[in-house]
């Protein structure tokens, strides 16, 4: 297990950074390319372990996928919605909740039986939130604790449409139901309490399906086909967020960010940073030839003030809460992140992982039930902290180490490869030192 040691960075930082393709979009590109009629090709696909799992799953179901040696350029010969084959063995999905939940929706519509497995973290993440709806549609699903935990065995087939309201907004659950809806004999609808990331809806339209959006309700009729598309995937804003924090927190910094995904349902962090006193300097955005908006912007060192993040805002920055906790330790006053319950069931319990590690570093951070309270600014001191094999906890604690007095050791950083294989390369590009 690799650990990283680092110290406070004090030289000025500048440069222009580009990021691997957005993780959510890369999963969906592989899924949609595989289920389309025709040949799709994508550039800047994330080659992190999570997306490799999705890719290998479709290959195991007979899809021909070719890629460049670094895995970022991908050509997929689509099989159409009804061309997948029964895999010869179970599909291992590593650490990837997105793969397991969205694939469950696709498999619910297949006339064969598949077993999905994952690593210990994925095997302990709740799946009933997906399997309960897919069962209502007619799929036969087995799993530990009545289908709540992997391994999941899914026997799909002809599905019935459903019209459901989710208790918790979740793009993974919504996506699974919508994709299963393509295999249903009628119209399937999902309503969310707050709109979660809408990439699946945008991809469905872009790949030629008809969907209807009425407020928070999205509906899709079964029996449609998807048509192949080709485009470049914008950089992952959830990965860029760690370097946005570096630009803001490290003194004398001015960093440019290039080709970043700028979808309204994903830019909660941008809005929160603006409230905290760190607005982006935008250099424009466009959508040309892509289902999604892409932007260039810059950020520089700023003094921050505390802010309040309400429940309704959370889906738009759900993956950025760990790095927001680090930013908040340096903000003047109180930061309150309300009702972050969903963080308890990510790759690890991120409320607990961040409070434990940042408290060891001297931060004033606690939780009341699932609300996170942080008081700043507090000088941080280096410590030996544990990522708990969670990529976003690991990267957040590395950024915290760069502003801490003394040496910081972050344990178990291999997990960073799941979503951000070039993370250390970008630290090198900024001439930030660390020891692996
Ligand atoms: C994702 C949705 C989010 C997010 C995850 C990726 C997606 O999860 O945390 O990293 O690609 O649909 P939930 O839908 O469970 O909130």
Q: Uncertain segments of ≥5 residues (pLDDT<50)?
A: none
Number of domains: 2
CATH topology of the largest domain: UDP-n-acetylglucosamine1-carboxyvinyl-transferase, Chain
End-to-end span in angstroms? 10 Å
Total of DSSP H or I helical runs spanning 4+ residues: 14
Looking at how many chains there are and whether they match, the oligomeric state comes to single chain
Which second-level CATH architecture of the largest domain applies?
Answer: Alpha-beta prism
Decide which structural class fits the backbone. Answer: alpha/beta
Largest sheet: 5 strands, mixed
CATH top-level class of the largest domain: Alpha Beta
Strand content: 25-35%
CATH superfamily of the largest domain: Enolpyruvate transferase domain
Bound molecules: shikimate-3-phosphate
Number of strands: 24
Average pLDDT, all residues: 97
Radius of gyration: 21 Å
Helix coverage percent: 25-40%
User: Overall 3D geometry?
Assistant: globular
Descriptive tags:
436 residues; alpha/beta; UDP-n-acetylglucosamine1-carboxyvinyl-transferase, Chain; 2 domains; five-stranded mixed β-sheet; four-stranded mixed β-sheet; 14 helices; 24 strands; globular; binds shikimate-3-phosphate
